[in-house]
Amino acid sequence: MYTRLLIAPLACLVLAVSAFAQPMAPAPDAPLRNAALRMKDKDYRGVRDELRTVPPSPERTFLDGVAARRLEQWPEASELLGAAAQDLPLLADYALFWQAEALMAAARYDEAGEALQRLVGTWPESPTLRKARMLLADALFARKEYRQALASYIRFIELYPSGTDSVTATLKAALCREGLDDPRRAVQELRAIWLAYPASPVAETAEQELKRLEALGFPAVPPTPDELLKRGTTLYNLGKYERALAVFSAIPSKEQPAAFNDRVALKTGETLLKLRRYKDAARTFSGLIEREPKREIADEARFLLARAQDKAGNDDEAFLGFLKLTESAPSSEFADNALLEAAFVRKFQGRYADQLAVLEKLLTTYPGTKLKPRALWEAAWARYNTGDYRSAAESFRLLTASADYRERALYWHGRSLQRMGEEAVARQSLAMLAEEFPFSFYTFTATAPAPQEEAMPLIVHDPRQIIAPPAGHERARALIAMGLHDQARSELSIARKNGSLRGKGLLGIARLYLEMDDYSSAAAALRGEQPRRMDGDTATTWGLLYPRGFSESVAAEANRHTIPEELIFGLIKAESGFSPVALSPVGAVGLMQLMPSTAKGMVNGSSTSTGISLRLTDPAFNVGLGVRHLKDLLKQYNGNVVSAVAAYNAGSRPVDRWRRSLAGLREDEFIENIPYYETREYVKKVLTFAEIYRRLYRPAAPALALLPPVSAPEPPQPAPTNNAPPTAALASPPEASALTAPVRQQP
């Protein structure tokens, strides 16, 4: 569709794009390039200043119009973008859409509608099409052409049934009803929006419109208790726990059936549990149980009560609660899970023999449970922790048949055999591990290669210097050249979804992503798995999967704080995938995912600094604070990388608690026993990434495992069992990684 637009007058644009895409040679039109860099940084006033010295061209007009629009200079923006739509056909759809936005903001609705009609009719494959259709309906609404607007909104909802804009279209359609003298229908539809989309900002607008219509004499039917319960449950399922609790608390219980009130109480307790208000949750569940609800409600309440008690630190009480549930309701859907939870309580009390007894009861009583693989894994570990290494080895061997557990089971089967002194058999298991999972955490932990002083890095060039710029993709290349990276990503996303790209085509797409420092998308463009070997043939793929993004900042901070740069790269890859604007669900920002409150305290010793979230999207600023925070954690844990990385994810308090409860374990054992699944896998991931970075870029450097561990005396060995001879507890073999060195937490 777009190739027919590549006419001769655009030759200068193609040349400019090629110049911008090549990082090796500066573009001859430096002012235009400088304006594009300003656009990339969203410095729109700077864009216009730079363009004052640029000779007239379609590209200059386009950039000037985009900047004017961002500065809300509507008359200038609409004029410039209108001209660009004529003179720069390669990107005319973008120019028309942004011109229409400027015209709408200037209340020139007729002209906006004309531009949008032209866009929709001429560019049916444009990435702006969805927004253009919505804006066209808005233009009709603004002109008070409610019947046509209603039809446009309904058509939009049919074409795009999901998404915030679809909900907005539903709200606008309701307001069209009011414009067509049907306010009661409008009230019904607004009420439905408020109930169905409680987490959407559109629901708040719907509520305001309902209040306005009520003041005009058209009140909505009050929500029923059932509707409120459904609304609160929707908020709960979306993770909006505070708002869900407010809804549940507002549901009237008077004159409601007991079964309904029990359901509300159960959801209230669940929400309190999610909010970590464990004592309040326990009181809620206890009160519900005292009312003797139906069996299915009572069973779930007992299970959740025990979980709340466990979370509140009342572990023995929780243990008894879990067991009582299985005894009083052995056929309950929660009974098998209750036994597993009871086993976890004993595990984290260090009572491994008791843990094993509970797990064996679970496996005997519920042989068909879906929890069987997890229970078998935990039982194997309970045997290992009691010193029954022979039984543990057999249990791990059986688990190697499970695809989900094979990798770690091979490792721990080998380690169990080493504990018994059966080194030859252990080597077979660990060799199989290395063959099947060559670049895994467990393989790296099993054998730590010595630094290779003469070794050369596998990757010595930036992939941008190796991968040729792709043929085609003129629109994406033009947008990249002009600093419009969000739009370029949309173009490349369309190309990737096409599914026809292979080999060099995918590498070309990756190259374009790298031009925007979009490392995660460049890696994703490969659509393949990690190579199974490291050599010259796979170097480019490894370089894309494990980039040294923002290397200047990383190298500077690594030198300043004497931290291996591969650890920093590993953290960044795990935390954000090298996205400077990454934002977590809890509000962590940037490359190293720092909380704004933490960053504020690091900047000026208080939490009053303003604009910190925006500053955290700057790579140099974020890496500077992130590495400083990592250095503080390394100091806190006397250089122990495992503790520092775990604390980076979960915080120091849990790590201190785990070091106390898991005292005396080797580092690999400690990692495998970290209670938080997310933190356990995070530590493995970061250490694995760091080792891969070391092998790719700094093979002469020592492995991270060689950093000083926390010093400690050798922990006492567990007493031998009938199946484990006194010689079972042996030290790690010489070739074992230093990750397995004995450690003790700080006093």
From TrEMBL:
One of its GO terms (molecular function) is peptidoglycan lytic transglycosylase activity. Keywords: Signal. GO terms for cellular component: membrane; periplasmic space. Residues 1-21 form the signal peptide. Residues 720-747 have a biased composition (Low complexity). It comes from the Bacteria. Pfam families: SLT (PF01464), TPR_16 (PF13432), TPR_6 (PF13174), YfiO (PF13525). Residues 707-747 are annotated as: Disordered. Residues 95-211 form the Outer membrane lipoprotein BamD-like domain. One of its GO terms (biological process) is peptidoglycan metabolic process. Residues 710-719 have a biased composition (Pro residues). InterPro entries: BamD-like, Lysozyme-like_dom_sf, Lytic_TGlycosylase_superhlx_U, TPR-like_helical_dom_sf, TPR_rpt, Transglyc_AS, Transglycosylase_SLT_dom_1. Residues 555-663 form the Transglycosylase SLT domain. Belongs to the transglycosylase Slt family. This is Lytic murein transglycosylase. It comes from Geobacter soli.
